[in-house]
Design brief:
alpha+beta, seven-stranded mixed β-sheet, 29% helix, 223 residues
Length: 223
């Protein structure tokens, strides 16, 4: 699987990937979960898909099989900021305003939304690989922009899955039940750091001492 990252300035470089991501969102959030969000018969696209948004998508054999959206908590576009801040302000009818106990607006914190994985990935291993690639891509985006932390509104099932992969995820605020799909949701937070598996892959591997002596410039290598 391959991870691609882009915003509105360069999504054209990846062909139909952005549109395919919107189509996947429609299949999951509208067709399966029954969310009342803007859509037509092919795609779902809301008020936060703007030039201030960034995207982390995963491709398998060239097809979009997962992805998510990210933006700084300082974002504004027209009458909207970011999803959780608008919910806190009472602008979103399907998300209770008490979902966050404090208002967050700092370039150091980024919000992630619309995380989705295709049902074409049927094995636990494939879905875990896809989720890891999506989130590590979000970490790449956030770190590149100077961010230090990620927050998202998500199901408690995702929190458990992220912890199993090795992300330091905690809950921020109380849970609530989504009347549209019947699931329990809460705001999650985590440092903008890679999964445990990726961190282990980049741990320096020391050379034997005789090689270090013989080739003094060699101090180690990465996997």
């Amino acid at each position: 699987m391959d991870n691609i990252r882009f915003d509105f300035s360069d999504f054209h470089r990846y062909g139909s990937a952005f549109y395919d991501f919107l189509a996947l969102r429609k299949q999951v959030f509208v067709d399966q979960l029954g969310w009342d969000v803007p859509h037509n018969d092919k795609v779902e696209m809301d008020q936060y898909d703007t030039p201030v948004a960034h995207y982390s998508l995963v491709l398998k054999h060239g097809q979009v099989v997962g992805g998510a959206r990210a933006m700084p908590t300082t974002a504004t576009w027209g009458q909207h900021t970011y999803m959780l801040r608008d919910a806190y302000s009472g602008k979103l009818p399907h998300i209770p305003s008490h979902v966050m106990s404090v208002e967050i607006a700092t370039p150091h914190v980024w919000e992630c939304t619309r995380l989705v994985i295709s049902d074409t990935l049927t094995t636990a291993a494939d879905r875990t690989e896809c989720l890891t690639a999506i989130v590590d891509g979000l970490v790449d985006i956030t770190q590149a922009q100077g961010g230090e932390e990620l927050i998202c509104l998500s199901s408690l099932t995702l929190m458990r899955a992220l912890r199993q992969i090795g992300y330091e995820v905690s809950r921020l605020g109380e849970t609530y039940r989504n009347d549209e799909d019947g699931r329990q949701y809460a705001v999650l937070r985590m440092p903008a750091e890679y999964s445990r598996a990726r961190q282990q892959r980049v741990v320096p591997i020391p050379f034997p001492s005789h090689r270090i002596r013989a080739e003094g410039f060699l101090q180690g290598a990465t996997a």
